[in-house]
Design a protein that fits this description.
Layout (H helix, E strand, L loop, with lengths): L7 E5 L7 H9 L4 E4 L8 E5 L2 E5 L12 E4 L4 E2 L1 H13 L8 E4 L3 E2 L2 H13 L10 H9 L14 H16 L8 H12 L6 E2 L1 H10 L4 E4 L23 H8 L8 E7 L2 E3 L12 H9 L12 E3 L1 E2 H11 L3 E5 L10 E9 L4 E2 L6 H5 L1 E8 L17 H14 L3 E5 L7 E2 L12
Parallel strand pairs: 1-10, 1-11, 2-5, 2-10, 5-7, 6-8, 7-9, 11-15, 14-16, 15-19
Antiparallel strand pairs: 3-4, 12-13, 16-17, 16-18, 19-20
Helix pairs in contact: 3-4, 3-5, 5-6
This protein binds guanosine-5'-diphosphate, 6-O-phosphoryl inosine monophosphate and magnesium ion.
Length: 434
């Protein structure tokens, strides 16, 4: 199939780690441009090719396709030191991206001060369970207009801007936390930015022109709707808009650039960090899912909390982003479990059924899941590449997800490798796979 002229967004629908990296890598082969538009190195997107795995944190997941042009939009917050480590890891795999990469000069830098502030907050206030990468403070400084954009490093005022941030952070973390001097921070940033200079520019103009030239664009979401600062389980969220709105603000492109939205969900649910998780299984089944699914964070190595698929959360996420199709991941992890639960709705402690997500953290504490159980399957789904080869119980399970969400299934994943999974025959994604 020729490259599609249509543009696609791939977004997480749960609490992150749904398998976005795998799907983005898979579909990147059909796209000219792959774009990150929000988040930073809190993201960990794993791509597995022929059993070899690579974790990408800030480099777009189209990196493994040498013909893909990679864009980091202005909505991303970038840690340059980690970025270099990532480039080095790719280089060791024979993958060079600097000749096909454009980073927005308006993207904000993650300063070491932000990491200190992030960790200070985690110790001195209610824990969110952040990744400790300074993401929250980076977006805070952006919103308070104290942040340092990549382009600022070129200006004579760079040092005074960094000094302002230093003073603010020092006021909060106090003298006990040793902070690098603004001079040292600037010097480090300047040496880190030098090899990237030719990759820095105006991504808004580049993307607009690429769109006008009808070059296909794949937009790569990081994190997921339930971690979205506006539409997630606030305050247990990240600090960017991970649902559809963040794509437009983080690139400077208008909504009509998008043709389709593919929402990614695991066949069950996981969450790292604190916060509401109504379908959580704090028992041996949850542990079984964690072990079989290798549910340990790509970025921090923390064990992920595991539970049944929550279709209340999925419906919410699909509505927020106008999802056209679902990619259901890690079906194989449920092999051998019997029965398998799906959370259909919630009920309040008073027994009232509710069909949409609550608002405040307090409201979340006062609901319980309503779970329906489906018969499991005994023949493995691992590596299956065809709908008809799925056990009938797995087909029923998948069909129930489509029914509960009202969104068709566009892709089914049955293992971590590129080849594990398939686009069902009637899916609109048919023909998009090279
Ligand atoms: P992302 O952050 O959404 O890109 O997801 P992560 O990479 O953090 O976590 C997903 C994990 O599941 C990775 O280790 C993937 O290699 C793995 N994975 C993806 N799809 C499948 C699948 O269908 N089956 C299994 N068993 N593993 C998968
Ligand atoms: P990907 O892109 C899973 C979670 C953290 C924490 C909360 C806030 O791999 O799906 P932050 O460091 O962003 O301030 O932490 O958000 N979190 C993620 N959980 N996958 C991610 O990214 C995440 N990025 C942040 O665990 O609960
Ligand atoms: Mg991840």
């Amino acid at each position: 199939m020729d490259k599609p002229s249509e543009n696609l967004a791939i977004l997480g629908l749960q609490w992150g780690d749904e398998g976005k990296g795998k799907v983005i890598d898979l579909f990147s082969a059909s796209f000219k441009n792959v774009v990150r538009f929000q988040g930073g190195n809190n993201a960990g997107h794993t791509v597995v090719v022929n059993g070899k795995s690579i974790a990408l944190h800030q480099v777009p997941s189209g990196a493994l396709h040498s013909e893909c042009f990679l864009v980091i939009g202005s909505g991303v917050v970038l840690n340059l030191e980690v970025f270099h480590q990532e480039l080095e890891r790719l280089r060791m795999r024979g993958i060079e991206v600097l000749d096909r990469l454009l980073i927005s000069s308006n993207a904000h830098l993650i300063l070491p001060y932000y990491i200190a502030l992030d960790n200070w907050r985690e110790n001195y206030s209610d824990r969110i369970g952040t990744t400790g990468r300074g993401i929250g403070p980076a977006y805070e400084m952006k919103a308070s207009r104290q942040g340092i954009r990549i382009g600022d490093l070129d200006t004579p005022k760079a040092l005074s801007r960094i000094s302002n941030v230093y003073k603010e952070v020092q006021l909060i973390v106090g003298k006990d936390t040793t902070l690098l001097s603004p001079e040292d921070v600037l010097q480090n940033l300047n040496s880190l930015i030098t090899p990237l200079k030719k990759c820095i520019g105006n991504t808004q103009v580049y993307l607009h022109e690429a769109w006008q030239r009808q070059e296909s664009i794949l937009f790569e979401g990081a994190q997921a709707t339930m971690l979205d600062i506006d539409h997630g389980t606030y305050p247990f969220v990240t600090s960017s808009n991970c649902s559809i709105g963040g794509l437009f603000t983080g690139t400077g492109l208008p909504p009509k650039v998008l043709d389709k939205v593919l929402g990614i969900a695991k066949a069950y649910t996981t969450r790292v960090g604190a916060g509401p998780f109504p379908s959580e299984l704090d028992d041996s089944i949850g542990e079984q899912i964690r072990q079989i699914g290798h549910e340990f964070g790509t970025t921090t190595g923390r064990p992920r909390r595991c539970g049944w698929l929550d279709t209340v959360a999925l419906r919410h996420s699909c509505n927020v982003s106008g999802v056209d199709g679902l990619g259901i991941m890690k079906l194989d992890v449920l092999d051998g479990l019997n029965p398998i639960g799906i959370v259909k709705d919630y009920k309040t402690k008073e027994g009232n059924r509710i069909t949409s997500i609550p608002s405040t953290a307090y409201d979340w504490e006062n609901i319980e899941p309503i779970t329906e159980y489906y018969e499991g399957w005994s023949t493995p789904t691992k590596g299956i590449t065809n709908w008809n080869d799925l056990p009938v119980q797995a087909q029923r399970y998948i069909n129930a997800i489509a029914k509960e969400t009202g969104v068709p299934i566009a892709y089914i994943s049955t293992g971590p490798d590129r080849g594990d999974g398939f686009v069902p025959p009637e899916s609109w994604l048919q023909g998009w796979l090279k």
